[in-house]
Amino acid sequence: MSTTDSPRKLGGLVIGAIGVVFGDIGTSPLYALKETFAGHHPIPVTDAAVLGVLSLIFWTIMILVSLKYVIIIMRADNRGEGGSLALLALVTGMTNNSRLSHLVALLGVFAAALFYGDSMITPAISVLSAVEGLEVVTPRFAGFVLPITIAVLTALFAIQKRGTGLVGMLFGPVMCTWFGVLAVLGVLSIAQRPEVMAALNPVYAAQFLAAHPWLSFLALGAVVLAVTGGEALYTDMGHFGKFPIRLAWFGLILPALVINYFGQGALLLADPAAVQNPFYLLAPTWALIPLVVLATLATVIASQAGAALT
């Protein structure tokens, strides 16, 4: 491979990874903060709570995804492959204890079963939820939601048989646009209330946990939504390689996610009533319909990415 081809190949791998690997975690801003403050166990929207929850989200992403998966676990590859079964083969090959090997094997199979189960139910649930978002554009789409969902699922699984590379190259540009929009919306909101950036300080998370133990416990159940799909970085390592995934994460995905979450937090500081849908209320009125369409595309892509790799 020539030096001129190397950057082109790397760029293709990065775009492919953005389209396949990061769809799940990349669409979490649609609901993570909303569920924290307006879910089944709503938290009062105060400045301290907003900063505390934002700090929890930020440090959860940094510790569980950036540190755990990107920096540590991705080192434990099995000849370049990642995922539960690859890790199982790696660990069992390092132990001479038969009982321990059997236990590790059982845990590995259980983890793989969970992954396959998730990959089976997620496309149907997520695609249906995404297509239902079209009703926001016009209620006349209501009668077409189920037929469109079936058509989309059929088309996606037909494309997937052609391989991960094609899927990534088709969906990569869409997801790049999605993450760009996340960042732009977040920056515009943060500019109005820059004090929200104080939540980068973990002290706010600690203070929230200490001051409201029960509320913070409930909040953690929603905060974890911000890192759903983080395991895909390790699972999909064999398809795209460590470096392209790490480059995409630190170069685009992580900044876009953090900026958008903090943008939603800035909006809540300015208008607590925006808790009903802090993501969409970041956008100006004229941009709502295009944003709904883009969000629908992004969630459709996210819902099928895991199934494409099983």
UniProtKB/TrEMBL annotation:
Annotated K+ potassium transporter integral membrane domain residues: 14-305
TM segment ranges: 12-33, 48-71, 103-121, 141-159, 166-191, 211-235, 247-267, 279-302
MF terms in GO: potassium ion transmembrane transporter activity
Gene Ontology, cellular component aspect: membrane
Domain of life: Bacteria
Keywords assigned: Membrane, Transmembrane, Transmembrane helix
Pfam family, one: K_trans
InterPro entries the UniProt entry points to: K+_transporter, K_trans_N
Family that this chain belongs to: Belongs to the HAK/KUP transporter (TC 2.A.72) family.
Name recorded for this polypeptide: K+ potassium transporter integral membrane domain-containing protein
Natural source organism: Candidatus Thiodictyon syntrophicum
Record lineage: Bacteria, Pseudomonadati, Pseudomonadota, Gammaproteobacteria, Chromatiales
